[in-house]
User: Fold this.
Amino acid sequence: MNDRTLEISLTVNGARVQERVEARKTLVDFLREDLALTGSHVGCEHGVCGACTVRVNGEIVRGCLMLAVQCDGAAVDTIEGLSDSGEVSDLQAAFEQRNALQCGYCTPGMITTAQNLLKRSKKVPSRDEIREHLSGNYCRCTGYQAIVDAVEAVAQARAGAKK
Amino acid sequence: MKITEDSPSVLTALDRPNSYIGRSVPRPNLQRLTQGRGQYISDIALPRMAHVAFVRSPHPHARIVKISADAAKKAPGVIGVVTGAELAKVMTPWVGVLTHLKGLKSAPQSPIAVERACWQGEAVCAVVARTRAEAEDACELVEVRYEPLPAVTDPEVALDAKTPVIHAALGDNLCFERKLDVGAVDKAFAESDAVVETTFRFGRHTGVTNEPRSVVADWNEGEQRMTVYHGTQAPHMMQNLFAKHLGIAEHQVRVLTKDVGGSFGIKVHTYADEMATVALSKLLKRPVKFVADRIESFVTDIHARDHRIKAKIGVSKDGIITAFEIDDLTGIGPYSVYPRTSGIEANQVVNLIGGPYKCPNYRAQARVVFQNKNVMCQYRAVGHPIAVAVTEGLVELAAAKIGMDPLELRRRNLIPDDAYPTQSASGLKFELLSHHEALAHLDSMMNYAGLRAEQKKLREKGIYRGIGFASFIEVTNPSAAFYGVGGARITSMDGATVKLDAQGAIIVHTGVTEQGQGAEAVVAQCVASSFGVPIGKVRVITGDTDNTPYGGGTWASRAAGIGGEAAWQAGKALRANVLAVAASILQAKPDDLDIRNGLVVDKDRGTERLPLDELARVAYFRPDTLPPGFQAELMATRHYVPRAWPFAFTNGIQGSYLEVDTDTGFVKLLKHWCVEDCGTIINPQLVDEQIRGGVVQGIGAALFEHCLYDERGQMLNGNMADYLVPMAMEMPDIECGHVVSPTADSELGAKGAGEAGTAGAPASVMNAINDALRPLGAQPLTDMPSTPDKILRALGKV
Assistant:
């Protein structure tokens, strides 16, 4: 089996990780199975639903479309890390307040994607811009409006706080 | 209702001092979900846990001639390769029938196909290995020799004499048939000034829960007990079914339901592969995990709504509906799904057509036939989207034909708000509905007159916008009339056990389950209110058959109305018990005391007498100081089941405003409105979010979602790239409004709200598209989903 596995070393949520993984293993399976970081979810395994969205070197990626071995040397952030650092605490609070999640399965990916939008630009995005940015993240429960409301509220609050 | 300042407010039992009824309290379980610290079944890993993958039939119908598993058994990590015949020694087959659906028949279904595979995707062999990847690798090595058999795919010919019969023992391909003839239908049509007749088609679609079906089964040979971690809506129902088909007692089975990543009716059925996983755990004496992948989900999660309905409406020139007539034909796959059956959706269609209207003449026929496609069964709003689209589609076509405004035609026909109690032509009993008030509310909320003026102005510029409506009724809070009377062990009752812990906090165990709809919040609100503590002091535990009271779980919009009432009553019972303890400590009369905000107080003055933590300390640790013979009972259980009405019907009306691009056939949804009446609203935010989510699910049916099969029975688009679901970009903002007509069957008066959105959205969107295209002379679209190519065809452009 050794010819099918590779040693990788990377940073996950700020901590150094060194593991031997199968070359074919996806990043999200590696995070969930090898590191027990189950906050990243598996929804479709073909890059459509966005439930496995994580951050690699600062950019959001689909954890099901990237192999773990491609992350050798990379810095990976998952919802667990984003939660503990407090980076998305305002988004989380807004999602909770606005009931922008029901089953919660899409939520880690949704919050990670929303944070990517809000970090990208200082200006408050329009509702249409929020909808477009989240359009790769599937939510079957909410109908999206509450999610857009929550992201919009945080964008406004962050813009206000910067003034 | 007129409210003047000098009139004293009428306090009901729901207006207790710190009532949470009617307040948008945030759900207590959200933080773990926003932090990714929930525990879904797909997250669970147990010691010695193995993973199962299934070899699935590529044929819609085939005899299984031979399964060669030698190579697979030798593959790395493989623990066992098990065929249907081998698994039959551990688990018995089942038949999905209910006795109150007279004549409904089906064939025995096994956890793994034994002799024949009857749809593309049915499991024919299981491979259990150390990892899912190794199990899938070994599946590739299993050689199955099939002898393809003729597949029955088109429901229209399923009953023809020359069509092969799928299950020879059944004699034909008819699963269920129902006929209804009420009033004088032929006479009514003959006397109508206008008759509209058309055929509606509904695309087969499916739930696409974000978390696929998941189960971890753990047979403990030493305990002789089966623990099943199951993403299900109905733990007690599944406990019964696992026990029954393993041939063990129910107390030997524990079903645990943790966080569930979406269900919508998908996760309330018996799935062969889940039953097989449980049987494999018993056979192999170790935990076995199965999580459907997305491809498996598309060919095995129940499908729904594949109906063809020929329909007819008669109307007088002054807009009075004279009669409805329908002929429903639906193909449900090769088996009626166990234990709720696949006859319910057609039965609901027959029941619900014409439901909002006072028209007394109604004839219906429904036929449910077997075919070699994936099974169909109950999915959110069961039958409602179909019945509402047919009824409301006919109503708007009739309005157009006689040149009457569609809302005006409804005003002339909806059951008057003062006519209750009453019943529909099909015999549905209505306690109290509010169609006219809901319609008036919608009319003003959406500024209907203003939208019509805007629509007219834009048409002159070649912009085609449409306005469509759908009045509807919804079945909620089902009594035993739904399943119990038909012999299924699916309880309509639910219970709550409430206890005061040793620090004065409240722990609630409830039989209803949390699928994300907010059941935990609603139960906490009910208990906090009726007992008298801040809601932060209440912890709710769900989804554990070893510990929660027996209950039906979550389906048919029952969790708040039934589970909430049980929780409310349990809170009251515990309050009485706690006041007895307080009275004993304080040497007061229980009737002179109350519990408010976590304190025992004087009922009259509200002054504090005893904090609950002090009461608990005395009761638990110094019972010796209580009077001789007094026993504190700090735990209370109450159950509730609706008895006065078979169902608590709700009602409402939706409106859709959209624009059709007549060059591309694309539909842009501009705005959507829904006014509904679910009785007492326990948590306004949760009700609105149920409506919004439900509306979007209905929009999916109206515009995007369709399980496409070829004529041989192969599903063509079983993945999320080809099967389209609503995403954020295409969805409109949705405005919600309410009318409140409580049910008198419970003290809370709450009815369900989970399916109203899905019930009405497809009809209102379909009607809005037809409204947009009417001035262009387009053929009305009655074939969902209304995809761009169908719209261009209706316009005669392709």
